[in-house]
Design brief:
- The protein is an all-beta fold.
- The chain has 2 domains: about 110 residues, Sandwich (Jelly Rolls); about 140 residues, Jelly Rolls (Sandwich).
- The strands form 5 sheets. The protein has a 5-stranded mixed beta sheet with strand order 9-11-19-16-17, with no helix packed on it.
- The protein is elongated.
- The chain starts with a strand and ends with a strand.
């Protein structure tokens, strides 16, 4: 977190995101590919923030005026946020107002998530409500907080305003999810967990979702081994991890998510 001010600043480009509004700069360097999240939650005026690369060019997808968030530390929908997957290299964050008259003290917060957090990282974020079908690949890099065992790990990232709104992640049939419990002699037991870049910890974890949401898998075995998380997550950047308890990979699954 950085407290700064645009009082006395001038505009020095680039014009791709904003033109003529005073800005200040903060530089950082990534040693590996990461997702970087930036917000100005709690700032006292209408902010705008954007990102440029080492050549001074604006990074696509990293320019935001109004985040529209009013929870989780955001006190106005006119405070800013963005998150973008970046290659290793040098970057600079610009903070400005939305208009030349929008200036003064601000709070800048940055979170990051390395692409190496899990064994298989999806660069495209998840947002809104959708089902995705996939096969668990890779080898274990992390251990879920709610269980143990070697596993594969599919990592998808998302952003949240934070606050009381509950997001939903599920491989249970009642939610539209699914997983193959048995494939010949092989059985699978999924685990879902959420890692918060804000706290640096696993903030949610579920092994068995139970019978209330029909968390049985297909292919045999009537027990409800499917996983389900319905909970609020901290403001900013998080990773949803699809994991599996006793085996490293190969589980077919349909993930239902509702990101709020």
């Amino acid at each position: 977190m950085v407290d700064g001010s645009t009082d006395g600043a001038t505009f020095d480009g680039p014009t791709t995101c904003l033109n003529g509004v005073p800005n200040v700069w903060y530089a950082f360097t990534l040693a590996q590919p990461e997702v970087v999240y930036v917000d100005t939650a709690g700032s006292t005026y209408d902010t705008k923030t954007y990102l440029v690369d080492a050549a001074g060019a604006a990074v696509p997808g990293a320019c935001d005026d109004d985040a529209g968030c009013t929870t989780g530390g955001f006190t106005s929908g006119r405070q800013s946020r963005y998150a973008v997957a970046l290659a290793a290299g040098a970057y600079t964050i610009a903070v400005s107002g939305s208009r030349p008259t929008d200036r003064g003290a601000f709070t800048l917060r940055v979170q990051h998530l390395p692409a190496s957090y899990g064994s298989y990282f999806y660069e495209t974020p998840i947002a809104g409500t959708m089902n995705v079908r996939d096969v668990l690949v890779g080898v274990s890099a992390r251990a879920p907080a709610c269980t143990v065992g070697a596993s594969g790990e599919d990592v998808r990232w998302f952003v949240s305003c934070g606050g009381a709104a509950s997001s939903l992640f599920s491989v249970c049939q009642a939610d539209g999810g699914a997983f193959v419990r048995a494939s010949g002699p092989t059985t699978y037991d999924p685990v879902l967990y959420v890692y918060s870049a804000l706290t640096g910890t696993q903030v949610q974890c579920n092994d068995d979702g139970g019978s209330a949401y029909d968390c049985r898998g297909t292919g045999g075995d009537s027990l409800h081994y499917g996983s389900r998380i319905s909970a609020s997550v901290p403001r900013g950047l998080s990773a949803l991890v699809v994991d599996e308890r006793p085996r490293r990979n190969g589980m077919n699954y349909t993930l239902h998510y509702e990101v709020r």
